[in-house]
Amino acid sequence: MTVPVTERALQVCLTCKLRKKACDKTLPTCGYCTKRNLPCRYQGPPAAEETGTEATTQIEINAILLQMVSLFGPPSGNVSTAPRRTWYQVCRIIQLADLSLQEISRRYFSNFHKWLPVVSYEIFQGTLAQYNSPSCPPPVDYSVLVLAMCLVTLQPSRLNTHLTPHSLYATMKMLFAEAQAIICASTYLLQAGLLIAAYEYANGRPEAANITMGTLARTAFAIGLANPSSWQTNEASNISLERLERLNLWWGVIILERLILCEIKDKTQRPTTECPSSKFPLPSDLQPIQASYQSVGSSSHENLPSNQDRKPCAFGHQARAVLLLDRVLAVRRLPRTDSGRTVEIRQLDEQLQNFLSERINTATAEIGHDCSPIASAVRALCLLHQDVIESPSNTVDLQSLQYSQAALGMPSKVTIGRLYCVEVRPFGSSVRCEWLHAAFALTNLGLSHLVDDDWLYQCKVQKRNAALPLGGQFNLPRLRHIRLGLVLLCNLRYNESVNRKTDARSVKMKGAALIPLAAGIPFAHGLSLHKRDGPAVVRMPIERRSAQSLQKRDSTVGVTLQNWDATYYAVNLTLGTPAQKVSLALDTGSSDLWVNTGNSTYCSIDNLCTPYGLYNASESSTVKTVGTHLNDTYADGTNLYGPYVTDKLTIGNTTIDNMQFGIAESTTSKRGIAGVGYKISTYQAEHDDKVYANLPQALVDSGAIKSAAYSIWLDSLEASTGSLLFGGVNTAKYKGDLQTLPIIPVYGKYYSLAIALTELSVATDSNSSSFTDSLPLSVSLDTGTTMTALPSDLVNKVYDALNATYDKTYDMAYIDCDTREADYNVTYSFSGATITVSMSELIIPATEPGWPDNTCVLGLVPSQPGVNLLGDTFLRSAYVVYDLENNEISLANTNFNPGDDDILEIGTGTSAVPGATPVPSAVSSATGNGLISSGTAVPTLSGVTITATATATGSTGTGSSGGSSAEATSTSSEGAAAQATSNPMNLLPGLAGIGLLLAL
Prior knowledge:
Elements: H1 14-19, H2 31-35, H3 53-68, H4 82-96, H5 101-115, H6 121-131, H7 140-153, H8 165-183, H9 187-202, H10 206-222, H11 241-261, H12 314-333, H13 341-361, H14 371-390, H15 398-424, H16 433-448, H17 455-458, H18 476-489, H19 496-499, E1 538-546, E2 567-575, E3 580-587, E4 593-596, E5 624-633, E6 639-651, E7 654-664, E8 666-667, E9 672-675, H20 683-688, H21 695-701, E10 709-713, E11 721-726, E12 728-730, E13 734-742, E14 754-757, E15 759-763, E16 768-771, E17 777-781, E18 788-790, H22 792-802, E19 805-807, E20 812-816, E21 825-830, E22 833-838, H23 839-842, E23 843-845, E24 855-858, E25 860-862, E26 869-870, H24 872-875, E27 878-883, E28 888-894, E29 903-905, E30 916-918, E31 936-938, E32 946-948, H25 984-991
Parallel strand pairs: 3-9, 4-7, 13-30, 17-26, 18-25
Antiparallel strand pairs: 1-2, 1-11, 2-3, 2-6, 4-9, 5-6, 6-7, 6-8, 10-11, 10-27, 12-29, 13-28, 14-17, 15-16, 15-21, 19-20, 20-24, 21-22, 23-24, 27-28, 31-32
Helix pairs in contact: 3-4, 4-7, 5-7, 7-8, 7-9, 7-25, 8-9, 9-10, 9-11, 9-25, 10-11, 11-12, 12-13, 12-14, 13-14, 13-15, 14-15, 14-16, 15-16
């Protein structure tokens, strides 16, 4: 007899909802889930405000995460189903993150792996190939490792507002505990646990990371890693890949545990693991071609394998640094009254300084290669002397205090001296200027936050009793900012093709190794800035100024092209009461306005920043603090850190009373930047979820202009000035039609001022060629980039058509200077709207010993993957109107010989740009600049391919007139394929604080 079911759920269970199966709603479990041993969970009806697609997506994701809590399913389930169940859910989560296994692997091994190489690429891929089929799922512990790799490579949450790093982290912790209940201990579980601990450490949770490391240390003992007798130096050259991975894994436990202990409040805590003896071999970088080993005791230059014999081992040097750090931690545990403590401090200080001198002065050409070892050594040096500086005055003598102060200044002084040497003479392949700037920022930014800001070189005796700004411990928000800046500056430089910020909404497009905006000429006075009495516009003259000279990309030495005219475009304004003049680089590729201050470590060196104007908050009576910080890194390596403030900003006769901007307390640039991009792309908006009115919007809010829109006219290569017109269009500055195109959104939102390039053509006196390779392509119109950067396959065809010769050393092309006078041109087409660039604007004069005679630089270069820019070599030939309100860009060919000004106001609403006409059927969707192609396959266990489809989150705003929205897929192997996004706040968890580069 059938028993009637009297209790049913109000809604279908989440499992049936996800799988789109019929659910009988039986309580406590439905029939479908009962038959298949699936977890069955019901959820109440959503709140009224949560209805719709977004709420459904959130419910689905919550269901996935809930199901991950148990690998066994309902009580009738069994352990044998755990591998299949786990692998399916891991693949589902990966799909929800819009990722694939291949993408996670690429991100992990090209970034995180460079800092903590504890997973062999060959073994990982081999296991994936062995088990990746519906009938043969991988083991549970391998699935846990895959999800951990997803955790540390998950980037930014804005692309998927529901699957946050925090929710994935919580799921990861629960899954890890479940897997331990099944397996207890394994290599895969240990690897996954290390990634979890690193994630916790990077997110300012050292206590949680320390607890995790305690478990991992015992796991390592359980699987037999901590057995020094099994590792002999003489067998290192013949070691198998599996043993090599285990060696690195054991070192990973040792290194990470000690780095975490540096941040623990109780300095008497001891590590769970013991450092190995001198017979224990150092780890390798686990690259496909394995390097030979050093022994722990090899610290001299003679004992280090030469670069001719093998690739330098970054992880091996990191291990050497941590061995010294371990001794420092031991010294800190000694009582201050211990007679041998001072002697040990002096010995360790000497060894640390020797190590730092060795690593800094033998810096390799590989970008960022030595950042992690240097960071760990600097951290150890600071900890070693911190007790001395913090000691009460009656417990430390003046000589010891001065000794510690001098010791802590050593890393910065060595780096600065190295920088100066680079400018004087070349160093072959031993030094890279970009890396040294990063090392400079590393040591100074970290050290300068140990005590007072002016402490680095001038720490006074009376300050030794002053309370540390960080309270003796770490202010977590500030700690996170410092970590972030240093991580992005240094360790992300391991792999240029991945580490440059390639998301169109987070990249501050400075040209990605094109022409860094890092130098210039003195601040010019006397510019007239005025607002017209008629139209509501604000006119702001632009000055064209000399910038840093061209540098080699593949050498560690900057080679100057003496007569090459690298430039940037500057605007002048005043801040504060009384007014303080500053000169800033105009940048449509970023959104924040920030200025330098005279008391920063960088600007205090020979008054480097003074010619461009400095802002002193203490001298302004109208400054107010905001409570948030700016900590950004641009694609050219420029880094800054400092607080947001509000103060009076004046442009001519136009004043904004409470303009928000950043003060760069730490920086690597001589001048600040005036970003005029979207307000949702400011650092505060991206990282603190607080949108503020940046310069274009602030002018609207003040009533100076009607709409957040502006036009730019740079004039010719020979001209020294141009014009930026907020809220208006000057019809005298262009010729032909002003045509409007839609800005390309990134997953439904607008972050970057990019449009779709649909065709590129070259006309010479003998031929005319048209190219559509890699097109349509999303390209950003960026005044902050000197050159134009497009995919290499497209650029190479232009080189051939113009008879230009590509120079790999400089990553530039040179061309006969006589071509500047030829009647050749390059035409850019945007769905029919065209901009023609003549050779006189595209070819830049340059001379340098070793270059062919009568050669110039062609202003078109291969782009970094996913970062495609129309820089100044394009923009000088175009009159551009950026309409941020309507998400449109209007273009016309520039008029190099304009008559009298004819200025028209840009109004409000749609079609607000006067005289502009929409391009019919304009392409409104294209890949490039952070747009990830949809359709990435994620393998599952049910024989069905899960396809990761980009889903718009949030409103798409107002587009331009109609037009095609066909998805364009790039075929370029170098220039158009979108890379991993790099929103700093979410990238930091993804990288788990690579190196963590803290010298605090």
